C-alpha cells in the first residue's frame, strides 16, 4: 500500500502518542464518572478534570471558572447564541444588531442568520480589505460581534484585540464572540488581551480527541440562566409544580453550564495535547514551499498569501471533488469543497477550493510529494 500523506490538519489533527497513552491509561486504570461520587476513584477523576481545566485556563490566560467544556466549536457557538438570547438576561436578541463577516465558518454565523430569518435580530457585515482581512475602521454599530480569529480558507490571523476595541468604541456594551478554531492551531491565545466576552475552539484541532471543545466566558455569573439542563448544574430546587412556583438555584460557573456527564476520556487526554502542541507548532515553512513551487503554475489559482497558515487554491475548469478524488487515489489527503465557509467562496466567486494544511508531524518530504501529485493531476 502506498504511503498516505496526511495534509489535512486544519480539519483534524493526528493524535500524538502521549494523548493516546493518557486516554488508554484512564480507561484501563482510572475510569469513573466525575462529580457523581465520593469514593477515592471518583474523587481522583474530579481532580483530573480540575487539573485539565486549569491547564486550559493557563493555555489561554483565563481563570478556571471561565472554562466550560463543550463538545466542540460548533456546540459552543450555538450555545452562546442561546445564552445571550435568554430573556432572563434582558430583552434577548429581539431587535438587536449582530455583526458577522464573510470569513465566518457556518457554525459561527448560521445560528445568528436563523435568528435573522425569524425576525429576531438584524445582521450587518464587518468590512474587509482587499486582502480579505477584517477591518477595524468603519465598523457598523452592533450589539453582538462575531469575530473569526482565523479563516479556515484564508489562514490569516485577524486583529482580534483591535476589532473588539473598535466595536466597543461604537457600543461599549457590545457582546464579542470569537471563533478561534483555526487560530488556536498556529498562535497563542490571550483572552485578557483580546478582552472578548466569549471564545470557542475545538480540542481535536490541537491533537486532542474529538467530541471536546472549550467555551470561554469572560463573566460567567453575568448570564443568569444556563442553556442546557440536567444533572450536576443545580444546587437546590424549592417549591413545587402544584404550587405553580418552582425555583432553581444554579451551581456556580462553570458547573452550571456543564449539565450531564462530561466527555471524560477526551478531557483526560487534553493536557497532553496542549503540552505537545505548545512545543510543536506546525512548520509554516512547508506552506511557503508549496506556495513558491505551485503559485506560478498556470493551471493553479492560489488564493492564499505566502505567509498564510494554509495553502488554498483551485484549478480552473476542474471540479474540486474530481480533483480531490484524483489526488486521494494517489495517497494525498487534503480538503476540498467550500470548507463550511460558503460566504468567502461567494466573495471569491469560486464554487470550491482545495486546502493543504500541515501539522507537527509533516516534513519537507511530505509537501514535496504532495506538490508532485498536484502537478501530475492538474497537468
Give a quick set of tags describing it.
Aspartate Aminotransferase, domain 2; alpha/beta; 7-stranded mixed sheet; 15 strands; Aspartate Aminotransferase, domain 1; 12 helices
| Count, helices | 12
Distance between the termini: 25 Å
Weakly predicted, low-confidence segments: none
Task: Give the class from helix and strand content and strand pairing.
Answer: alpha/beta
Q: Largest beta sheet, briefly?
A: 7 strands, mixed
Identify the CATH class of the largest domain.
Answer: Alpha Beta
Strand order of the largest sheet: 2-8-7-6-5-3-4
Strand content: 15-25%
| Reported CATH architecture of the largest domain | 3-Layer(aba) Sandwich
| CATH superfamily grouping of the largest domain | Type I PLP-dependent aspartate aminotransferase-like (Major domain)
**SSE sequence, one letter per element:** EHHEHEHEEHEHHEEEEHHEEHEEHEH
Roughly what percent helix? 25-40%
Secondary-structure blueprint:
Blueprint: E1 5-6, H1 17-30, H2 40-60, E2 67-70, H3 73-84, E3 96-100, H4 106-117, E4 121-125, E5 144-148, H5 160-170, E6 175-179, H6 183-186, H7 191-194, E7 198-202, E8 213-217, E9 234-240, E10 245-250, H8 264-279, H9 285-294, E11 301-302, E12 311-314, H10 320-329, E13 332-333, E14 335-337, H11 342-348, E15 353-356, H12 364-378
Parallel strand pairs: 1-13, 3-4, 3-5, 5-6, 6-7
Antiparallel strand pairs: 2-8, 7-8, 9-10, 11-12, 12-15, 14-15
Amino acid at each position: 500500500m502506498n504511503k498516505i500523506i496526511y495534509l489535512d490538519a486544519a480539519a483534524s489533527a493526528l493524535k500524538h502518542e502521549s494523548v493516546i497513552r493518557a486516554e488508554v491509561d484512564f480507561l484501563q486504570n482510572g475510569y469513573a464518572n466525575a462529580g457523581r461520587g465520593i469514593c477515592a476513584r471518583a474523587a481522583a477523576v474530579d481532580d483530573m478534570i480540575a487539573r485539565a481545566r486549569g491547564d486550559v485556563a493557563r493555555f489561554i490566560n483565563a481563570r478556571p471558572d471561565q472554562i466550560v467544556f463543550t463538545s466542540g466549536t460548533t456546540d459552543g457557538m450555538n450555545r452562546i447564541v442561546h445564552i445571550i438570547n435568554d430573556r432572563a438576561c434582558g430583552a434577548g436578541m429581539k431587535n438587536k444588531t449582530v455583526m458577522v463577516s464573510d470569513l465566518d465558518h457556518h457554525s459561527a454565523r448560521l445560528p445568528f442568520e436563523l435568528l435573522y430569518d425569524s425576525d429576531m435580530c438584524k445582521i450587518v457585515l464587518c468590512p474587509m480589505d482587499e486582502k480579505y482581512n477584517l477591518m477595524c475602521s468603519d465598523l457598523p454599530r452592533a450589539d453582538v460581534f462575531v469575530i473569526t480569529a482565523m479563516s479556515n480558507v484564508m489562514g490569516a490571523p485577524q486583529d482580534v484585540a483591535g476589532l473588539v476595541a473598535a466595536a466597543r468604541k461604537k457600543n461599549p456594551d457590545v457582546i464579542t464572540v470569537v471563533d478561534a478554531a483555526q487560530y488556536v492551531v498556529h498562535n497563542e491565545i490571550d483572552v485578557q488581551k483580546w478582552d472578548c466576552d466569549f471564545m470557542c475552539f475545538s480540542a481535536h484541532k490541537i491533537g486532542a480527541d474529538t467530541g471536546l471543545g472549550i467555551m470561554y466566558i469572560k463573566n460567567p455569573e453575568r448570564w443568569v440562566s444556563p442553556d442546557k439542563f440536567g444533572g450536576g448544574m443545580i444546587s437546590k430546587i424549592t417549591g413545587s409544580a402544584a404550587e405553580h412556583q418552582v425555583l432553581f438555584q444554579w451551581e456556580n460557573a462553570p458547573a452550571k453550564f456543564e449539565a450531564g456527564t462530561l466527555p471524560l476520556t477526551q478531557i483526560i487526554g487534553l493536557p497532553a495535547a496542549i503540552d505537545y502542541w505548545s512545543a510543536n507548532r506546525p512548520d509554516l515553512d512547508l506552506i511557503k514551499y508549496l506556495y513558491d513551487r505551485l503559485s506560478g503554475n498556470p493551471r493553479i489559482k492560489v488564493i492564499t498569501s505566502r505567509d498564510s497558515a494554509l495553502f488554498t487554491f483551485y484549478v480552473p475548469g476542474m471540479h474540486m471533488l474530481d480533483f480531490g478524488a484524483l489526488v486521494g487515489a494517489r495517497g494525498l489527503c487534503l480538503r476540498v469543497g467550500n470548507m463550511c465557509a460558503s460566504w468567502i467562496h461567494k466573495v471569491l466567486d469560486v464554487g470550491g477550493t482545495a486546502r493543504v494544511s500541515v501539522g507537527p508531524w509533516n516534513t519537507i518530504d511530505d509537501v514535496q510529494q504532495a506538490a508532485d501529485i498536484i502537478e501530475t493531476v492538474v497537468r
